[in-house]
Amino acid sequence: MAKAVKQFGPVRAGALVGVVLAGGEGRRMGPGPLKPLRPLGGRPMVAHVVERLRPQVMDLVVVANDPSPIFRRLKVPVIADPPDIRRAARREGRRLGPLAGILAGMEWSLRHHPHAGWILTAPADVPFLPLDLTVRLCGLMHVPEPDVLMVRHGQRREHTLAVWSVKLVHDLRRAVLDEGVRRVDEFARRYVFEELVWPGGNAEAFLNVNTPVELKVAAGRLAGARSRSRR
Fold first, then answer.
1. What pTM was computed for the model?
2. How many CB atoms lie under 10 A from the CB of residue 173?
3. What does the buried/exposed string (b/e) look like for 109-124 if buried means 16 or more CB atoms within 10 Å of the residue's CB?
């Protein structure tokens, strides 16, 4: 049994396009590099998310508004928010939040994979994503299919760890630009919405690294995992 667990790897399911949201400002992390680019185990934190998610989806894109060349080293497409979204952000004097990145991911998916009906979004600060994430999510995509399917563990709902129908793209653009909607939950609740309650109540896989303390916790966990794998 121990050998079987050790060999367990990412499992891919369904025609999902992965979208890693790396456009946040990360103010709680304090001065220094952008939060997705903070070193974790010798690599940028976002690289861990890409590594765990890429084998589970048919294609993957990173949404990042910063032009840092470090993003290009991820060897996946890197895009920014759509130009009109960036103009709206400049007018407001702030970024428009995760909905802007979700919109960018939908539009990229429709251009490059017009027959894929869904995107799976994941934030760039969750470096221990489950390797069976897409399998469990797709297992809940029954008929009638929800428009939005979010992950919940314990009492926490992960608003940006979700499957989205790309049919919402025009509604999302209108909500962000014309209606000023900024909260992910506010938009998602307009449509057929469901949750995947993660089995076992184990929240370790969903550690959000938002502060220097949480980054140290993540580094310790990663070091422990590497030590166990060498035994």
1. 0.89
2. 18
3. bbeebeebbbbbbbbb
Contact 69, 26 (CB under 8 A): no
Tell me the C-alpha distance between 20 and 11, whole Å: 18
What's the angle, vertex CA 149, arms to CA 214 and CA 112, rounded to 5? 95
Interval 73-86: pLDDT, tens: 999 999 999 999 99
pLDDT digit string, tens, across residues 1-39 = 333 334 445 555 568 999 999 977 677 777 778 899 999
